[in-house]
Write a structure and sequence with these properties.
This is Anion transporter. The chain contains 20 helices and no strands. By secondary structure, it is an all-alpha fold. Helix 12 packs antiparallel against helix 13 and helix 18 runs antiparallel to helix 20. The protein starts with a helix and ends with a helix.
Length: 399
């Protein structure tokens, strides 16, 4: 019990801190009727619905099966790495950066081990992590904090995407250039053309419980392809809800009821700590906004330079908590959107999703931990040194 509690505390540090802040703030502003207005239910509704659908896709192994099929099209080391990084870059836009990394980083490490390219792991995983964080910043559903900002300010989806599009395009160019410089064009057909690629990577022990409940034709107990189509329909419904085309209550109802009948275990597979963290921050920020001295000081601090303050704050508390905190004291929404997204670059904790990659490296290659941290930090600083000045120029021109 004690060990489990320690492991849980390590995993949910942000939730614990947010809860403590919320509790302390309740002594400053005693609970009253206004507390009901603190929680942004639209954000939580969208977040939980998307988490359920994405977890359902994970449980039937759709993402990894797609990955193995794409990888079989690559013939050189350069193209293999490009496929792996593209998987996190584009999937991050649709299923969030952390899900992209949870799904594809272990897959990539297995591919590298099969190819005898273990030494590439720190750089490849770093590029995949950059890809996930930079790809996810384009869409409201790519990051939880983007979803919150969109719901908070009621910004149309296309408008929000237009703000981040230049940085997404620039990021893609930087990633491609890096891959072309760092990797050669030597053949890897002996790995990618193997008929056992999908099975050996996705289900190394077919007689045992499969990772992510993967069901592949030919082995394992099949769920049948109909679930894929049902979950795809639910994902479209979520997009309609996020896009303000259908009511959020209808979106949530359809998703929850469908999951109860198709795969009720999915409710145990999502990270409930994330919406709880949001709720705790909502309480803390709601209370502190009612303290005139604190509100005035915080608002003055944020307005000094919203773009740089967002990036800087993210380096210490990660960009999701930074967004929840700073959004309560600023109305410079464009700068806040750009700053909190670019703020995912930098330190290892600037984006909590990056810890997924770090844990994967440490668990498989503990002796490469130092090398990974050096490469990760160096590459993140390099990308930030390009994208942040670019942001200042664009914001300055559009002000």
């Amino acid at each position: 019990m004690g060990q489990w509690l320690i492991e849980w505390a390590k995993k949910e540090v942000v939730l614990i801190v947010a809860t403590l802040l919320a509790i302390v703030s309740c002594f400053i502003v005693r609970p009253d009727a206004q507390y009901a207005e603190y929680v942004h239910w639209n954000t939580l509704t969208q977040l939980v619905s998307l988490m359920l659908v994405v977890a359902a896709f994970q449980r039937i192994g759709v993402f990894r099966i797609i990955a193995s099929k794409l990888l079989q099209k690559a013939s050189t080391s350069r193209m293999v790495i490009l496929v792996l990084v593209s998987l996190t870059f584009f999937s991050g836009m649709l299923v969030t950066n952390d899900v992209a990394l949870v799904t594809f980083v272990p897959f990539a490490i297995s591919v590298l081990i099969m190819a005898g390219k273990d030494e590439w792991a720190p750089l490849v995983v770093t590029l995949m992590t950059l890809g996930a964080n930079l790809g996810a910043m384009l869409t409201p559903i790519g990051n939880a904090h983007n979803l919150y900002l969109k719901a908070l300010i009621q910004m149309p989806t296309l408008d929000m995407m237009a703000i981040m599009a230049p940085y997404t395009i620039a990021s893609a160019i930087l990633l491609i250039i890096t891959i072309w410089i760092a990797f050669d064009g030597k053949s890897m057909k002996e790995v990618t053309s193997s008929s056992d690629l999908e099975k050996s990577v996705l289900a190394p022990s077919p007689d045992k419980a499969q990772p992510d409940e993967i069901r592949i034709m030919g082995y394992g107990a099949g769920y049948g392809g109909w679930r894929t189509w049902v979950y795809l329909a639910l994902f479209v419904i979520c997009l309609l809800g996020v896009g303000d085309i259908i009511p959020l209550w209808l979106m949530m109802t359809i998703v929850v009821v469908t999951m109860i009948f198709t795969d009720s275990r999915v409710f145990r597979n999502i990270d409930w700590g994330l919406p709880l963290t949001f709720a705790m921050f909502f309480i803390f920020i709601g209370n502190m906004k009612r303290v005139p001295e604190f509100y005035s000081l915080a608002a003055h601090f944020v307005q000094f330079d919203p773009l740089d303050i967002s990036v800087l704050t993210s380096q210490f508390i990660s960009n999701m908590p930074a967004t929840l905190l700073l959004a309560g004291f600023s109305n410079s929404w464009t700068e806040l959107i750009i700053g909190t997204n670019l703020g995912g670059l930098g330190t290892l904790i600037a984006s909590m999703a990056s810890l997924v990659s770090y844990r994967s490296i440490v668990s498989r290659f503990p002796h490469k931990k130092g090398k990974y941290l050096a490469i990760y930090t160096g590459m993140n600083i390099l990308f930030l040194l390009v994208l942040l000045p670019m942001a200042h120029i664009i914001v300055g021109l559009t002000a």
